[in-house]
Structure formats: structure tokens, C-alpha cells
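Standup notes, structure subgroup. Blocker cleared on the zinc ion input:
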Amino acid sequence: MKFRFLGTAAAEGMPAVFCRCEACEKARALKGKNIRSRAQAIVNGELLLDFSSDTYWHAVQNGLYLDEVKYIYFTHSHMDHCSCVDLQLRGKPFAHGMKEPVVTLYGNEAVKAQFDIVCEGEGMFPSARSGIVFQAIKAFETVKSGDYEVTALPARHAPQENAYVYVISRRGKTVFYCLDTGWLLDETFAYLQEKKYRFDMIALDCTSVDNPSADTAGHMNLQQNARVVEKLRAFGCVDERTKIFVTHFSHNGNPLHERVEALCEPYGFAVAYDGLEVEL
Ligand SMILES: [Zn+2]
Ligand SMILES: [Zn+2]
Ligand SMILES: [Zn+2]
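Run returned:
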């Protein structure tokens, strides 16, 4: 399985859209891994996790063909994860010679509402609409997409909707995409323990980096990430072969790449950056 991080910032990006704070100014000067776009990832070039506001940029930067994407799993409807408006360009006269005639979207009711707004707008041509299927997904539901098995688990995030984290399995490899979320809910921990997953890779919400973060918050910091990993290790979901990444950094956490790498060293976590591909 090839897993690629496309965007590794929180909603505001790094540097943040309108910000002149010290961290953002440093990112502008240093560039490279310090430039972080809005959260998105792709598996094997065909399964997208979220359709963020930077999807077009991600495709150009990474040489992706978005017409080859068959499945899009949405975590929740926040704008940095769900920006459906570009989907209206998936058809003639905006796109020719597409490889995959149909893309299937999976998401909660709030994502569906966002998608419906785009469909009802005058920009959605029948040529685009006919190639998009929306399938509602519920917490604790496992969906088969080709040879992928994807399970939605409830996140501690966006309480006005049902936000999800995802377990994605294919041909013996399993990834836990654990964002956006705060400290995991008891029922999510219980499910992971009961299912006895063994994760080849985990991506953790580290929005707050080393800033304080309560267990009731909708995001995590490094210490909380470490506690999540400790619990998963006790369940047998994590072992010495599990590749653990932190991602979804806010500029308020000063997520300059080298700084976060130094903070992660004692934990043995790797720091995700835009464009990082992980071979599993
Ligand atoms: Zn987010
Ligand atoms: Zn800033
Ligand atoms: Zn969010």
C-alpha cells in the first residue's frame, strides 16, 4: 500500500492564509517542509481521504491524476476537509478522457449537505453530476470499496455533526487515519480493542503540537498522541513495526518541521509533511 500525505496543516494552513505571526513568517522564509497545506491524503493514487480546499494544488504538486480517484472518504464537513465545489469540474467540458467514469463519495449527513449545495448550484453540469455517487456512511460501519475495507469510527470533533476517523485495510495492510479528533472516545477505543487490529501505520491529529490541550478538546497535542499510542500498544494494535506519524499542525503550535521533529524524537514518532509517501 502506498500512502501519501498531501496536506499536513490545520484549517488555516502554514503559513496561515492571513497571518503574520512569527511561525508563519519563518515558514515563508524557510519554505520546504515548513509549507503545509490543508489536510488530505491519498492511498495508491485511487482512494482520497478528504477533498480539501487545496486539492487542486495537491494534484499539481504531486503529479496526481484526480480522474483516477475512485473513492473519496470524508472525515467531516469543515472547510479544510470538505470543499466539494471543485467536483463540478469533473466532467465535460471541464475534463476530457477521464480514466474513471464514476467516483464514489462517502461521508456523514453534513458532508452530504455540502455536496447537495454544490449539486444545486448552476455550476454543476449533468455531465459531472452523473459521474458522482454519494454514499452515506455511519459510525462503526465497514464499507467495501473495491479491495479496500474502510471502517468509520466516531471522532471527538465537530460535535454538531458525526465526524469520523477511519481504519483502511487492503491486502493485509491496515492504516488508522486518526484526524480530526481530540482524545479518542471510549467507544472508539473499545471498538479498536475488540477488533484486534494491527496497524501498519497511524496518522495522528497533532494540531496543538506542544501547546496545552484538554482531553475534552476537539484536537490533540503530542502528549495526548503518546497516550493514544500507549493505549493502542496495550491493545496489541500497535507494535514495533507500526509507523507512527503526527500531522494536521496549527501555526499556533509553531510547527516548523525541524522543531516538531526534535519534539517527536523521544516518542519515536515521524513528522508528516506535504508530499511524504509511505510504502507499507
Ligand atoms: Zn482539520
Ligand atoms: Zn501564523
Ligand atoms: Zn475539523
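Discussed briefly. The two ends are 5 Å apart (CA to CA).
Next: hand off to the docking folks.
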